[in-house]
Write a structure and sequence with these properties.
By secondary structure, this protein is mainly alpha-helical. It has 11 helices and no strands. The chain folds into 3 domains: about 70 residues; about 40 residues; about 60 residues, no CATH class. This is SCAN box domain-containing protein.
Length: about 220
């Protein structure tokens, strides 16, 4: 006779995370080094196996200044999502890719700086820009980043704003979005100046606007 198996199964012991006990291990938040804070926090959280749903609980205990204000202003469903909180805080401190790009491009040497110090600061700003864009030291990613920046500098301001609002990874994607935007708005931007607010180029049209024929050079021999 086969012995019937019991319907009662041993349930695995539920994991319990004591947030209050671990809060003391959360690194101190400093508004002057926000860009370095999140990688440091994430490294500690991974090493100590903190469940990600608790990360925002840990963060809010150390947030101060503008970060605390941003966190308090978020609705409950967003304030419990770590990636959303991180993005909103970085945005508040202007530590998003576009801000890094502008800082890198606009940074000039101070009279009190040596050229070595200036070069080091430029390099640091460039690295922050690349890191925020997650190029991962990949040549093709870097290539597309440079091409996209150049493309945006050559288009009209409202089109650039439209592209900035989109998640664009390649210059081809930017071109397709730009063509669709132009068609939907029934505009060609012909003869309009491109965005000049960030040192962008001015459109130099090569088309002739007059209807007069070009006079033939007298030095040319007649056929």
């Amino acid at each position: 006779m086969v012995k019937e198996e019991s319907n009662t199964k041993v349930q695995p012991k539920s994991e319990y995370f004591d947030a209050a006990k671990n809060i003391r291990l959360v690194p101190r938040f400093c508004e002057k080094t926000v860009d370095k804070y999140f990688p440091q926090f994430e490294k500690i959280a991974h090493n100590l196996n903190w469940p990600k749903p608790y990360w925002t609980t840990m963060l809010q205990s150390v947030f101060e200044g503008k970060a605390a204000e941003i966190y308090s202003a978020l609705p409950s469903e967003k304030s419990s999502d770590y990636d959303t909180v991180k993005q909103e805080v970085l945005k508040a401190y202007e530590l998003v890719p576009e801000a890094y790009r502008q800082k890198f491009r606009s940074y000039k040497k101070f009279d009190s700086q040596t050229y070595v110090e200036f070069a080091r600061e430029k390099e640091d700003l460039f690295d922050k820009w690349l890191t925020s864009k997650k190029t991962d030291n990949n040549f093709d990613n870097l290539r597309q980043l440079m091409l996209l920046e150049e493309f945006k500098q050559c288009v009209h301001l409202d089109l650039k704003t439209h592209l900035d609002d989109k998640t664009v990874g390649t210059i081809h994607d930017a071109a397709v979005i730009s063509d669709n935007y132009t068609l939907s708005h029934k505009r060609s931007f012909k003869g309009q100046n491109v965005n000049t607010s960030s040192g962008n180029y001015k459109n130099q049209s090569t088309e002739r606007t007059d209807s007069k024929p070009v006079a033939q050079n007298k030095s040319q021999s007649s056929l």
